[in-house]
Amino acid sequence: MALEKDLLTYYGSPIISGEKLQMALGYPTMAAMKKSIIRKTFPVKTFKIANRRGQFALIKDISFWLAEQAR
Description:
mainly alpha; two-stranded antiparallel ribbon; 4 helices; 2 strands; globular
């Protein structure tokens, strides 16, 4: 998928977190994104990585969700 390839090129990694994740999904603030994750209303699956802080998401899941929103 072209969108997935573009996001991978832009972010440089198959996973993103923090402010990059916030911006990719269009959340106005980090607090809004964190609230969405806590409330389990976040639109893509997130996961933790051992010995790393924060939640992570796959570029593949983000590109799929964005493409669905554009339909």
